[in-house]
Amino acid sequence: MTNTILRALLSYWWRSPLQLFTFLMGLALATGLWSGVQAINSEARASYDAAAATLGEGQFDQLVPRVGDRIPQSVYVDLRRAGWLASPILDVTFKGVRFVGIDPLTTPTQMSFSSGSGFSLEDTDLIFGNAEVASVLEGFVEVTKDKSIPPGIAIADIGVVQRLFKRNDLSRLMVLPEQPIRRPDLVKIAPELVVQPSQQIADVAALTDSFHLNLTAFGFLSFAVGLFIVHSTIGLAFEQRRGMIRTLRSLGVPLSNLLSLIIVEMGLLVFVGAVLGILMGYTIAAMLLPDVAATVEGLYGARVSGTLSLRPEWWLSGIGLAFLGAGMALAVRIWQIMQMPLLSAVQPRAWAIASAKRIRGIAILGMILLGFSGLLALIGTGLGQAFALIGFLLIGSALVLPWLTIKLLDFAPGKGVITSWFWADTRQQMPGLSLALIALLLAVSANIGVSTMVSSFRVTFVSFLDQRLAPELFVRVEEEKTASALEKYLLERELEVLPLLTVERPVVGQPAKLYGVRVGRTYRESWQFLGADPDVWDQVSKGEAVIVNEQLARRNNLWVSDEVDIAPGLNLPIAAVVGDYGNPQGQVVMGELLFRKLYPNAVATSFGIRTTDTADLRKAIQSDLEVPDSGIINQASIKSMSLEVFERTFAVTAALNILTLGVAGFAMLMSLLTLAGMRTPQLAPVWALGLTRTRLGVLELARALGLSLIVFICAVPLGLALAWALLNVVNVEAFGWQLPMFFFPADYAFLGGLAILATLIAAAWPAIQMVRKPPATLLKVFSNER
Amino acid sequence: MLLELKDITKSFSGVDGDVEVLRGVSLGLDAGETLALTGESGSGKSTILHISAGLEVPDGGSLHLEGVEINGLGEAERANLRRSEVGIVFQQFNLIPSLTVEANIGFQAALAGRRDKLFESELVEALGLSDQLKQYPESLSGGQQQRVAIARALAVRPKLLLADEPTGNLDESTASAVLTAMLDLVGRTGAALMVVTHSAALAEKMDRRVRLKGGVLL
Ligand SMILES: Nc1ncnc2c1ncn2[C@@H]1O[C@H](COP(=O)(O)OP(=O)(O)OP(=O)(O)O)[C@@H](O)[C@H]1O
Ligand SMILES: [Mg+2]
Question: Which member of B53, B75, B88 has the closest CB to residue A254?
């Protein structure tokens, strides 16, 4: 018996390969979306790590020679014997490529060169670099390509670099953060070395964390969309087989046998669909991300250089997603079958939402959810509530959509008989189309949300780097004497010099950093504010007001023109609030003169220098003032390097857009196909009354076009609201600052065009079917009432 | 007695309140006996058939098949009984659209685990379906589909054969072939046959005739 039932169940797929295809595709797209987002997220993470590593290269204290740039290996050995925990580094520049030899065994794990970014130096003689570096060095050494390595850098084991350049010394030593409590003074063991304190040029850790959090949020969004699609796909398959299930039961197939076989059948199909989806998401992500290849190894998570790796968690979670969605849908359907009287009407019901009356009820529920969401936006606190806000917003909008669409259709133009029949017919189809429209809404608004979020990040990040890394060269010296000599030297050359004056002191009762800045062209031109008086820099340079960072402002509920205490007994108004994505600490920026008056003991030992000729100036400073090479940082090149690394990540938008739109278009196709099948009886009379099949087909296309336009119009505000919630609510809750939100109307219009195109393609199939439907099929409607 | 209905009542909930379709129907059918059930459209003939097959649950009264009270049985036991003891020809045929005619014909017999290819080919021959075996139901005419449904019910060799308007879509000569096939089965296996029909000619051929009116049998 089992065989017979199973054969009957499967015969359905056999006879309708199209249905099988849509079923598998639905599942595959859902899991594909999920695994694609995961892959992209990890790619973004790798890029950010690489950029952060570049920017935060100075995140550890270093030991550098007082004079010159070489440290004998024996000094290192002595230090280690004495208990210092340090890791040796050898820098050699060759053909414009900086070879960095590191010791994988002692490199601090926090440094992403040695962890997390795709390659390992242990037990290997390989030299790693990106594709560009590899081509520069072609013929000199073999470079293993690894996209996670910052541009212009080749990394290898220190022994490899020493052998390559016939060196037996070191350039610098990295001091590990964890040191033994008692260790002898440096002067006692290695008087020729000095400690160079860590200097975080622009720490983007918080910014990247925020980016990942937001991408993860979108990962969940895609998970939800995926669940939704799986649910609908299963629902559709059941609707279409309602009649068969009824017949099977009336011929004496026990319900329990039937249900267990259906579960087995669905399980098999879901598994196949999910695996297809994982492959698809992986391939699409790899195709859309430059420099990344999809390999079989990458698919099971092996880290191969230049390969997108898909970790087993995503495999499993993707399959889990498919089964979760399928399980939920199956539970509903099985419950329905159990309730279904044996002889209930065989007419397939529309896909899910049944009647116009229910649409209104559902819309009311949706509005309540939207109300909750609005309430949370106003009074919510905490990350959990921020995410609840997003959830309510999405679900609420989805539930309101069908009703809203019907309302909007009232404004549709039309006087003629056919037009009014057409719109009335469209309204009547809303219950059947609503799930597809919801899928389209979710997909398009997720797209708008993602691209707004990612692009806002990009703009913010670039301007943040511009602001923080404006001086092309950054010099740090050890002694005050050298510092004043350096400043004099630079001023004589008529360069803009920006001394870095800083003290730490509590402000508004919390630890903060105070900066004294020399107001000049650089600050006036490159700093952008979240809120400011018109003449910020004039006030600051006169010592009449200060600038605070966003963290400090938000934490203490202060804004422009409020006052802060910057020295005992001295309060000054805030002239501007500046976005600061680098650190959690409060910062106050004041004019140099005021700073020197308030804190006469603070001396600037670091200087930013504006110059167009970084290489020459660098050499000149080194030779004229005997500043070690490691004390000079070329910020211009760091900036361009990190921007280059980041650009890769922004391909995520494109990848996500294509995936989500594919999903939406597919959902549309599925429901249009179902409706097309069920609608023959409704269209037949219109046809019989004199409307040609071609005309009917064209009308079907017009309908899809109109509906997708309405959905798109609804999706824009929803997508923007999503992005707003992520940038302004989630971020503030998680990190203490907002990301400014930028609008990209051209992108949205393009997206809208794509969405409408996807719908048209989806609608074309049933429309063509309509046009080619043999009159006999239409006639059958009249000849027998089935 | 093979089938015994006693004081069966059944109502359906309609738009304006419940409609009492059967108001105490009693009916007995012996093995080897044939019965015609007539009545106006909408009088409840199909409902009686469905109740007899255990497909529909009556609101009141008792129903015995081979001495077993069906109303007391669970869903699985009803299904078992229906699968192996009852052959039913639905008014709407209820063929499985994704299976060929041949597979449809053998379907219930296969479920019951007693497929007999030889007998099936006799049926196919007798009902004039030889040329349609490889086709799918959607490409058959109404009358052809009806004959497939009849062949499927007969192929099980049920103890109780229920047919809802089995000749409704058929011309006279095909109708008589269908009748012959059904009576042949009754003769060979001693099955009981209940036929719902509007055709006086068909009703004439049955041992007994009952008429349903106002929810009771006349
Ligand atoms: N599932 C149901 N739900 C509601 N009403 C039903 C249902 N099945 C049957 N009825 C109603 O019960 C009455 C009897 O239906 P039934 O199908 O038994 O009539 P019939 O005698 O077979 O008619 P016909 O000769 O037209 O086939 C009808 O009024 C019908 O509308
Ligand atoms: Mg009937």
Answer: B75
Question: Cα(A621)–Cα(A683) distance, rounded to whole angstroms?
Answer: 85
Domain with A778, as residue range(s), is 2-50+208-456+646-784
Whether B88 sits inside 8 A of A250 (CB atoms) is: yes
pLDDT digits (tens, 9 = 90+) for B8-50: 999 987 767 788 999 999 999 999 999 999 999 989 999 999 9
Structural domains in chain B (count): 1
Q: Is residue A202 part of a domain?
A: no
Please, which pLDDT band fits residue A307 given cuts at 50, 70 and 90?
Answer: low
- The ligand with the least distance to the CA atom of B44 is 1
The count of domains in chain A is 3
Q: Please indicate, yes or no, if residue A461 is contained in any of the structural domains.
A: no
* Span A440-461, pLDDT tens digits: 888 788 878 877 887 887 788 7
Same domain flag for A598 and A697: no
Express as a percent the part of chain A with pLDDT over 90.
Answer: 9
**Helix pair A383-409, A417-468: axis angle to 10 deg:** 150
CB contact set of A323 (below 8 Å; sequence gap of 6+): A267, A270, A274
Chain B residues with beta carbon closer than 8 angstroms to that of A243: 94, 97
- Complex prediction ipTM: 0.87
The range of the structural domain enclosing residue B175 comes to 3-217
For residue A57, count CB atoms less than 10 angstroms from its CB and return exposed for 0-12, middle for 13-18, buried for 19 or more.
buried
Residues with CB under 6 A from ligand 1: A 343; B 12, 19, 21, 39, 41-47, 91
> Based on the domain organization, do A436 and A505 belong to the same domain?
no
Q: Which residues surround ligand 2, an ion (CB under 5 A)?
A: B 46, 91
How far apart, in Å, are the Cα atoms of A179 and each of A49, A71, A109? 25, 21, 14
Q: Would the CB atoms of A252 and B99 count as touching at under 8 Å?
A: no
Q: Which residues of chain B have pLDDT under 70?
A: 15
Final residue before a domain boundary, out of A197, A226, A249 = A197
Q: Examine the fold and report which residue of A588, A612, A639 is the final residue of a domain before the chain moves on.
A: A639
Which of A223 and A329 is assigned the larger pLDDT?
A: A329
